[in-house]
Structures are given as C-alpha cells and as structure tokens.
Amino acid sequence: MKQFRFEYHNSELLEKELSEFRNQNDSDAVKTKLFQIYSEVLEEDAVRKVCEVIGRIFPDTPYMGCSTSGNIIDCQLSGSITVVCTVFELPTTQFRIYQYDLSKEPVEEITGRIVEETEKNSWVKAIELYFTIPEGSTTRFCDGLKNIRKDVQIFGGVACSDDITSDDSCVFSKQDGFSENSILVLFYGGEDFHVDSINVTGWKPLGRKFRVTKSDGCVVQELDGIPAYDVYRKYLNIKNDENFFYNTLEFPLFYEHNDTTILRTPVASNEDGSITMTSDIDVGSVVRISYGDPGTIIESIRYDSQRIAGFGPELLHIFSCAARRTFWTNREPTYEIYPFKEIAPSSGFFSHGEFLRTGGSLNQHNVTLVIAAMREGEKKEPVAAGLREEKSLSKVPLVSRLATFISVTSLELEEMNRKLESANEKLRMAAIIDGLTGLYNRKEIQSRIEQALERIGEEKFSLVMLDIDNFKQVNDTYGHQEGDAVIVGLAGILQNERTERRQNVASGRWGGEEFLLLFPSCNGDE
User: What is the reported pLDDT for 522?
Assistant: First the structure.
C-alpha cells in the first residue's frame, strides 16, 4: 500500500499535480486506487470542484470524503482541503464504498444492509465509517452492527466543521454525491490485507462518582437524583447558556460501557436541567466528570505507538476528536500523535466523535484518539516509535495537580463514606437485634406487632408465643453458659422456620426464655 497526498489550492493547480502524479506512476495504472478527500470547507461548490478534477484525471477511480475540523497528514496539520490517494499494490486487496441516506432509510434498515453485505463478502476485514453529525443518538446504529463477524474491525469518525459548536457537516462520494445527512461505509479486505486498531483517551476521572438516576436515551435528566446540569454548575461553574458545549469539551463524562472506557461529551444543556449526549447513557450507569491529564496521555501514546509499530503498518488512518485539538492549543495541534509519524504515512481528520469496535461492540467515543493501522502482505521490520522530549512536560500544570488532588481526596472520602455506611448499618441492626440470639429484640418485635394491628382490617395475622419449660433448672444444673446455648439453639430453630417455610415470619426474643412468632396473613392451615 502506498499513499500520496495533495493540498488543494485551486482547480488548475490540483489538475496539474494529479496529471503529473498519473504520468509518473504509469506502472501503477493497473493497480487499484482510492481517493479520500478531507475538507474544512463545507460549501458544496468547493467540494464539487475538487471531485470534478479527480473525475477528469482518474475517471475510473472512486472517491469519497467528508467535512472536518482539521486535516491530518503525516501526523501534522494539513491544508483546508486535502486529497489522499491510496494505491493498493496487491491484486487480492478489495474495497467497496456505500453511502446511505439517513433521511430516506431508517437506521435499522441501514445497519441490516451493512451486516448483510459483510456476510455476503467473506473477504471483508475492516469497515471504515464517515458519519454526518446525527440529530439524535448513534446508539441504535452501533447496536445494529453487533452481529457482524467478530473478526471484522470497525472504526471511523463523525464529520464536522471548523466550528466545533456547529451541527453542520457533510459526506460525499463518486456514486452518490454530496449529502448533509448520510453515512459513508468503506469495506476493506482480501487475503493479504491486514488491519489493527486502537483508541487512546488519557482523560482521568475527576472527583466523585455519580449514578445516572433518570435518562431518556441520549438525554441524561438526573445524576444522583438532581438535574444533570447542576453537576456541571456546582463543580465547574459552567453556565447553562449557548456556550455550554464549548465549555464542557474538556470535561466529558467518564464511564465503563461494553467493557471499555467511554468518554461522552454533553452537546447541549436543556431548560429542564437535563443534558443531551451524543449516545445513550443507561439508568444505573456510574459516571464521573473527567479531565485531560497530559502525562497520562503521553504515556498512553508511547505504549500504544509501540504496539502499532510492532504490527508493521504501511499506512495509518487517524481520527482525533476536535476537543483534543483544543486541549493541545499551547503546542502544535497534532503534538500527541508525533510518535506515529516515524511508523508509517498517515492521513485523517479531527472529528466530532470517533468510532471503534472493542470486544465485539461498536462504540462512539468523544475526546478520543482512534488509529487504524493497515498493510498488505507480511509485515516488514518494525520501526521504533518515539516522542520528542520536552522539558516542559516535566512540569505538571497547576490544574492537573489540583485534578489529581481532588481525585485522590474524593477516593478517600468515598472510602470513608463506605466505612461510615457500614458502621451505621451495624448500629441500626444493633438497635433492633437481640445480641445473643440474632432474633429481633423485644422493642422491634413489639413494633412489628403494633404495625400488624394497624392493618387488622386489611390483613389477618397470627401470633405465637412460646417459652422453655423448667429453664431455671437448666441454669441451676448446668450453668448459665449452657442455658445460653439452649436459648441460641431454640433461636436457630425459629430462624429455620422463617427460612424454610415463610420468608415473612418475624421472630423475636420477648424475655429471658420467651419468644414470639408473628405470621402475617396466616390462614390458620399453615
């Protein structure tokens, strides 16, 4: 596999460059080619001009592309419109492009067709997705691809624009043209085609845990019983206004889903205090606000770049969240992906969201870096990856130190709360349980009898009182220790009565050797 890149300035210059490229690579004429176009410019006329030039010089070559928040070539920021040509050198390698219009077909029908196409074509090893910004959640789309063969890798990104707060985006292809509401699906595969993919976050959970107590699909309504927005207001002083999305980009929700770590950025806050996410978050999910930690990101990149280097790729496709570009504003926007620069040629874009299949489940991520590595044939000698050392990295920013402090403090508080809850539970039980027998004490069994009397018109109950005959003789003859053993033995029998016959029997110790059994709703035959 080879990759050739061109920056678009005007139609005349692009036509000249592509003509020279064609003439210089006559020997590649029979090899399969694919053009991919990344554009920060959303105007259809601008995109059309680029496509027309490609169509004139390479009339039989397919092309596809999307709008972006920045283009990446060889791990560096590229021009506003970038054209990438991939040349597949082995005849066994195949690819196919499909474009599905979300305004004309329901999501379930689209995912069904993708699954069907994968099953019909056993050569498929990878699926690359370009997704316009959806009106709602992508959860149904992701769930719809669960039945795709486990060995097929899926990755991609959500198209966007240079204004990351905008919902404008587009995709386009040779066969179906320009669209602001579609999905592009690119199948790769073949006997000699190999692919691997990874994702990197580096964001760390910050502060306490919250449980999602109320949600409706991608709208999270309550966290720990309070409006979800109040969490961002209280802990980060973020206002519920038109800048909410921009201000929360660096503070996504961190949680575990489908056995992988997910970062989910709120895209809007609503008048009722709920927040809208890009994908569903189920009730019961445990989430935390998170914050990007430079040190963690760099260490993750170092580790994962070595893994990708060991795969021996011939090219890399990079999908990096636009929020990460914002995060590294004090350095080059692509600073974190430098370790991949020496591994293989790369292309990609800054996205509104990233897709990656992990453990058989496709997930949409936010604030995440997804990298797909590809090659044809056997891997060559791996290249060692490295990151340029900078002294400034050794100085942890104050906000990062505070984040670590808050996180550790929160963990300590959570541990203290767990111990306090355990102690409170023991105190509560001590107040109602007889210390010797483990049955309810007199105060508690009396309380339950009074409660049963209050319901006497609605429910019947039976009350059994018993004691141990000649118990004084047991104490006098064998001692109080043996007497206690007799009491404990009888208590065990009463506990078994509750366990084996009726779970709702209340058994208690009334006095020294006196016991009570309360049978609610007993009909006299049991």
Answer: 53
Which residue do the tokens 């920045």 mark?
A: 70
For residue 40, what are the CA distances in angstroms to 104, 319, 371, 417? 26, 14, 20, 50
H/E stretch holding 354: strand 354-358
Burial of 326 (0-12, 13-18, 19+ CB in 10 A): middle
Q: What is the pLDDT of residues 448-497, one digit of tens each?
A: 888 888 887 778 888 888 888 888 888 888 888 888 888 888 888 877 76
Mean pLDDT per 10-residue interval, the chain, length 526 residues? 94 96 77 94 95 96 96 95 96 96 94 96 97 87 94 96 88 96 97 96 85 93 94 85 82 89 89 89 92 85 91 96 85 88 95 94 94 92 55 45 60 80 86 87 88 81 85 85 87 71 76 84 52
pTM for this structure? 0.74
Question: Which two three-digit tokens encode residue 60?
Answer: 């039989």
Rounded Cα–Cα distance for residues 213 and 220 (Å): 9
Phi/psi of residue 143, each to 5°? -65, -30
CB-CB neighbours of 57 under 10 Å: 18
Alpha helices of 312-356 — where are they, by DSSP H?
A: 322-327
Q: Name the β-bridge partners of 276.
A: 219, 268
**Which tokens sit at 102?**
């979300």
Among 252, 245, 260, smallest CA distance to 292 is for 252
What is the three-class DSSP state of 401? helix
List Cβ neighbours of 95 (8 Å cut-off, separation of 6 or more): 32, 34, 88, 186, 187, 188, 189
Q: With contact defined as beta carbons under 8 Å apart, do 362 and 406 qualify?
A: no
State the CB neighbour count (10 A cutoff) for residue 447: 15
Q: Which of 169, 157, 166, 170 is nearest to 199 (CA)?
A: 157
Q: In the numeric block, which tokens belong to residue 469?
A: 């005959």
Question: For residues 218 and 136, what is the distance between their CA atoms, to the nearest angstrom?
Answer: 7
H or E element in which residue 355 lies: strand 354-358
Query: Among all chains, which residue has been given the structure tokens 């509750």?
Result: 498
pLDDT at 463: 84
E-state strands within 245-298: 253-257, 260-264, 266-269, 275-277, 286-292
